[in-house]
Amino acid sequence: MSNSNWVDAKVIENIHWTDALYSLKVEGDIGAYEAGQFGRLGLMIDDNIIGRPYSFVSAPHEDFYEFYSINVPEGLLSPKLAELKAGDHVYLGKKANGFLVLNEIPESEDLWMISTGTGIGPFLSIVKTQEPWKRFKKVVLIHAVRHAKELTYRELIDQIKAQHPDQFEYVPFVSREETDFALPGRIPKALDNGTLEERINLKIENGKSQIMLCGNPDMVKDVRETLEKRGLTKNLRRTPGNISTENYW
Ligand SMILES: Cc1cc2nc3c(=O)[nH]c(=O)nc-3n(C[C@H](O)[C@H](O)[C@H](O)COP(=O)(O)OP(=O)(O)OC[C@H]3O[C@@H](n4cnc5c(N)ncnc54)[C@H](O)[C@@H]3O)c2cc1C
Ligand SMILES: NC(=O)c1ccc[n+]([C@@H]2O[C@H](COP(=O)([O-])OP(=O)(O)OC[C@H]3O[C@@H](n4cnc5c(N)ncnc54)[C@H](OP(=O)(O)O)[C@@H]3O)[C@@H](O)[C@H]2O)c1
Questions:
Q1: Is residue 106 located within the same domain as residue 89?
Q2: What are phi and psi of 226, to 5 degrees?
C-alpha cells in the first residue's frame, strides 16, 4: 500500500462499549462519502501501513468520522485500534467505497436493515440522514447479537424512534442469553416461523419490501436463502431485486 492512499488523521475519542466493542471518532480530511459506505483505517505495523475497511457510522453531514469495531483477539489490526486514545495518530483511507447505500435500493414501501454485531454501523449512518424517512413508509432496523450488552447505540436508536415513532421499528435479537425484551435465537429462524414479522406486524413481501443485510457472512447467506424461498431476489443493477448485502469477512 502506498502512502498516497492515506491521509493522516487524529483520534478524537475511543468509546469502549464492552471489553471487545469500541467506536473510534476520528478527524481528518477525506473526500465525500454516502451513508452506508465504508472507509479504511490503518496503522503503521512493522514499517507497513496495515489497513482494513470499516463502515461509517457517522453521517455525511457530521464533522467527524465514526467507526464501530470489534476486537478480534487473533486479528492484526483491530486489537491495536482498540487501544487508541484521544490524540493518537491513525491513517484514514482517502476514498470511500461500497454499494450498501440507498441510491442503489429500488423504490419500495418498506426498508428492512438487518445486521449482526458491528454490521449495524452502516444502518446507523443511513437512519441519521433524511432520505429513508422521505422514501419509505416503514423503516425497520434489526440488530442481532450474542449478549444483551452488545446491543449498543441505544441512545441514538431511541432518539430516532422519538423522531419517527410510527415509521421506525427497531428489533433486537439476543442469541446466547435470555432477555425479556429481545427476540431469542437467530434471524433466519424467526423469519421462517413468523415471530419477527409478528413482532412489528409487518410482512416482508416481494414487490413491497427492500432488504439490506450486513455483518456475519453466514447470517447474510442464511437470510438471503430464506427470503429467496419466498420469491425475493438479489438486487443487481442490471436486474433489480429486493436483497442488497455486505459481508464483513
Ligand atoms: C466492506 C467491509 C466493511 C467492514 N466494516 C467493518 C466495521 O464497520 N466494523 C468492524 O468491526 N469490522 C468491519 N469489517 C471487518 C474489518 O475490516 C476487519 O476485518 C476486522 O476489524 C478484523 O481485522 P483484524 O485485522 O483485527 O483481523 P483479521 O486478520 O482481518 O481477522 C479476520 C477475522 O476476524 C473475524 N471478524 C472480522 N470482522 C469481524 C466483525 N466485524 N465482527 C466479528 N468478527 C469479525 C472473522 O472471523 C474474520 O475471519 C469490515 C469488512 C469489510 C469487508
Ligand atoms: N476481544 C474479546 O474479548 C472478544 C470477546 C467476544 C468476541 N470477540 C470476537 O468477536 C467475534 C464475534 O463477534 P460477534 O459476536 O459480533 O459476531 P457473530 O458471531 O457474528 O454473532 C453475532 C450474532 O449473529 C448470529 N449469527 C451467527 N451466525 C449466524 C447465521 N448463520 N445466521 C443468523 N445469525 C447468525 C449469532 O448467533 P449465535 O449466537 O447463534 O451464533 C449472534 O446472535 C469473535 O469471533 C471474536 O473474535 C472478541
A1: no
A2: -60, -45
